[in-house]
Amino acid sequence: MNFRNLFLGLTTSTIAQDHPINYFDIGSRGGFQEDLLPLAFAVNAIGFEPEPSEFIKLDSQESGPWLTSKHLPFAISGDGGRQTLFISRDPQSASLLKHNMGLGVRFDKTQFVEVEEKIEIETQTLSEALELANINSIDYLKIDIEGAELEVFRSSPTIMDNILAVKTEVSFVEFKHDQPRAFEVEKFMKEKGFMLMDLVQPAHWRRQGYVIHPYTANEVPPYSRGQIVHGDYLFFRDPETLGDEPEAHIKLALIAMALGYFDNSLMILENRVARNYVSERYGKSILEFIEPASRAYGRRVFWKTLYSQIRSLVPLMRYSRNVLRKQGSNIMPFHSNQER
User: Fold this and answer.
1) Exposed / middle / buried, residue 279 (Cβ in 10 Å: 0-12, 13-18, 19+)
2) Global confidence as pTM
């Protein structure tokens, strides 16, 4: 149950098609993330993959639900040019920064920091990538390049001034040497006129294994909460910095809606310029623009959450049964109403 083109056919779709979103996915191994799927019909998706074999896989894929899509065969860095990519045993942790072996040993997760291969790759700055992608601006930027995100932001200040929303991986520990921490990224983004909206998919580690609250495991000690180590920060540009350009307000509101932040979308469009633009061009109020999409999105979230929670009951019940068995308790067999 996904959100692919969820807004297509609603009042939202007419406005979205008139204001297509340029989406940069930096670190798109495995394909584009699904953040903007509700608006895919109005999204130009551009990804980057420097490893030749992975690029061929991505480049051979069909455009999927997107208005347009393509991948470019290079990475993004702060300086551009040829650079060394350090590939760890778990390739998802490949980085232009050197890995911190001490952290991997500390948490007994050396697969993320033990480098198996070093390759030379071609990189471009964010400004150069924009030109090579043949677009004028980035509306939504997702970036996950294992610690080098802030370097990219700092190297392209003019580009950052015009981006409307950013989802960036941040780290709360030093996975890589000289890696900026989450608070440094937040400080920079605030100075560039962004507001921190959310921490998405936080990851927690414990010293041994991966089983954390509320479960116990055959580890030492058996139970422990995990330490937050990384996650994604989601930033929206402060609407007060958008000036009197209604198109920027519209696009930011659309991105907010695609990500599920309908309350913020409404606040963005309450700006006089944006409100009048929607009314005069489309003959609609901003509530008529937002409410149908909000209702459709909310229903999809409910059913997806319900399905997920039902599935999560299976390991929970298995775990409960094992705990009770170890405690010497007997479990009463379950009978349906029909069996009774």
Assistant:
1) middle
2) 0.89
129, containing H or E segment: helix 126-132
Rounded Cα–Cα distance for residues 94 and 311 (Å): 32
3-class state of residue 245 by DSSP? coil
The residue among 319 and 207 whose pLDDT is bigger is: 207
Structure tokens at 289: 């623009």
Place of tokens 């991948």: 71
Q: How far is CA 158 from CA 185, 226, 324, in A?
A: 17, 39, 60
Strand partners, 169: 232
Q: How confident is the model at residue 325 (pLDDT cuts 50, 70, 90)?
A: confident
**Burial (0-12, 13-18, 19+ Cβ within 10 Å), 275:** middle
Q: Is the domain defined by 11-78+124-326 classed in CATH 3.40.50.150?
A: yes
∠ at Cα 47 (46, 48), nearest 5°?
135
The arithmetic mean of pLDDT across residues 154-159, rounded, is 92
Rama region for 252: left / alpha / beta (φ>0; ψ in -120 to 50; rest): alpha
The pLDDT of 146-170, averaged and rounded, is: 94
- Give the number of other Cβ atoms within 10 Å of residue 250's Cβ: 21
Radius of gyration of the chain (CA): 23
- What's the angle, vertex CA 141, arms to CA 83 and CA 146, rounded to 5? 40
Quote the CA–CA distance of 78 and 155 in Å, as a whole number. Answer: 5
Q: Is 213 exposed, middle or buried (0-12, 13-18, 19+ CB in 10 A)?
A: exposed
Sorted by where each begins, the domain ranges of the chain are 11-78+124-326
Q: How do the residues of the chain divide into helix, strand and coil, expressed in percent and rounded to 5?
A: 40, 20, 35
